[in-house]
Amino acid sequence: MVECPCRVEGLSFRWPDGSLALSDLSLAVPGPGLWMLVGDNGSGKSTLLRLIAGVFTPAGGHIHCPSPPTLVFQNPDHQLLLPGCGSELLFHRPESADPSAAARREAVDTTLARVGLAGFAGRPIHSLSGGQKQRLAIASALISGARLLLLDEPTALLDPDSQIDVLDLIRTLCSGPTPLTALWVTHRLEELDRCDGAMLLRRGRAADRWSEGRALRIRLEGLPSGRADR
Length: 230
Known about the structure:
β6, α5 (about 160-175) and β7 (about 180-185) form a beta-alpha-beta unit. It is globular and about 50 Å long. It has one domain (about 5-220): Rossmann fold (3-Layer(aba) Sandwich). The chain has helices at about 45-55, 85-90, 100-115, 130-145, 160-175, 215-220; strands at about 5-15, 20-30, 35-40, 60-65, 70, 150, 180-185, 195-200, 205. It is α/β, with parallel strands linked by helices.
């Protein structure tokens, strides 16, 4: 039986001004794969990811993730800390890992290759394109050992080709020999066609079940103008 990669029960959260962001929200990610959250601005999608990641503290409810999650931001410039690709990955490598120079080099090279950045260890981060920076941010999550990736609109700032590249990368990581779990927030309805399941959030609450992504896209595209959950 596959263990649930992430479960939240009765989650609530209020902003400092007292306004309610999440109200009694419950959902369970069924297993490894690419799972997407969609909803209006203010529906609680990004807030939910930050609660799961431990950035915010819930006012109530429970979060259970057997593997520590890692959050990937919409803008990789807000996440990448060091000047070089190799040094950035080593910063996120667990302290308990083999400290030898050979093991460090192999870990960096292998992880970069997994995200399509083979040979980039010596590249300065400022020389990367937006899509390459986002892949490096994903590589930083991978080298940390994370099995649950939380992606907050990771394609929002990318050109169309890079959007496809990043989505294809996550799909590959979620369907390999040792598949990861990705919880992906999106406002691009066309991306729903590529996920294993999608969940609609409204006013801080989640739908009662996961939907097939394409079916949810078609339903949302059929809403009157101004009502689609984007």
